[in-house]
Amino acid sequence: MAPETARGGARTVRVPDDRSGQRLDNFLAGQLKGVPKSLIYKIVRSGQVRVNGGRAKAERKLAGGDEVRIPPVRVAEPGETSGPSKGLLGAIEGAIVFEDARLLAISKPAGIASHGGSGISHGAIEILRALRPGQSLELVHRLDRDTSGLLVVAKKRSALAELQALMREDLSVKGRSIGKRYLTLLAGRMPDGVMSVDAPLHVGLRQGGERHVQVHPDGKPSLSHFSVIERRGGHSYCEVRIETGRTHQIRVHARHIGHPVAGDQKYGDESVNRRLREQAGLRRMFLHASTLEFALDDGRTPYLLNAPLPTELAAVLDRLA
Questions:
Q1: I want to staple 233 with a disulfide (CB 3.0 to 4.6 A). Which of 67, 113, 286, 320 is the partner?
Q2: Looking at the domain assignment, is residue 277 inside a domain?
Q3: Number of structural domains in the chain
Q4: For position 261, which CATH number holds?
Q5: Which structural domain, as residue segments, surrounds residue 143?
Q6: pLDDT tens, 243-281?
Q7: Is the pLDDT at 170 greater than 50, yes or no?
Q8: pLDDT tens-digit map of 11-32
Q9: Start and end of every RNA-binding S4 domain (predicted)?
Q10: Are 194 and 313 contained in the same domain?
């Protein structure tokens, strides 16, 4: 437990050495159990949270020995909605597909965010923390809210640090990487074989703070490999292997090659989405993170995690047969 002192209702917490490298927002989430992430971001933006006496951003990486001032935060009164609903708790508990001493993986349902914030009180990580109140749980990576599939959570700091180094293609991991595969339905008939899309992606903000990603020469290098598994109803059921993990990468690359992800309301084809909704009952984006393959302990301990295609997406394929 990190030592702490109280100052005028606020408290100052010393960051323990094993939390070195943790983001400020995630550290605060561990200190302020049950507090929505949106409120955590608010108190950070307002300057109420201080690191070593100065203002800090939510994404700041902390170091062991840093002193974090945490203001008093109002928690919900009896009768107010404070924690995840029983339905959310049950959905996430039933979605656990793997667990060992270091990692926990769920097959995240579509419609549930990876974490709270931007008007969302409870994402998958907050729900897991509510299910496991005594455990230290940290997101290794994120999935779009409307994408289903594998979401990995670290139970130990050592696993978190090694996996995040793999995720960001850190040279210190000696050429190792994470194999990331998705299943998707793309509009129209993709050509046979593997189509590799090497197109840089740039994240911009639209009015209201909405993120919008586009292929742009000033963007970050991004590489995706699309291969057709089978064709259904004039569309292409594909596996996608990505070598980078950019925001909305598969969705934007799919649109870039003229075969947008079915059901994608942001980057997709509105007329195709409407027909698939009417003819096959597709009421969500057809994108599922199916497989993660990596190794921990400097490559000595291999992991192969799988999340089967959700039943509602399998039913869409059946109706298109």
A1: 320
A2: yes
A3: 3
A4: 3.30.2350.10
A5: 92-164
A6: 988 999 999 999 999 999 999 999 999 999 999 999 999
A7: no
A8: 999 999 888 889 999 899 888 8
A9: 22-80
A10: yes
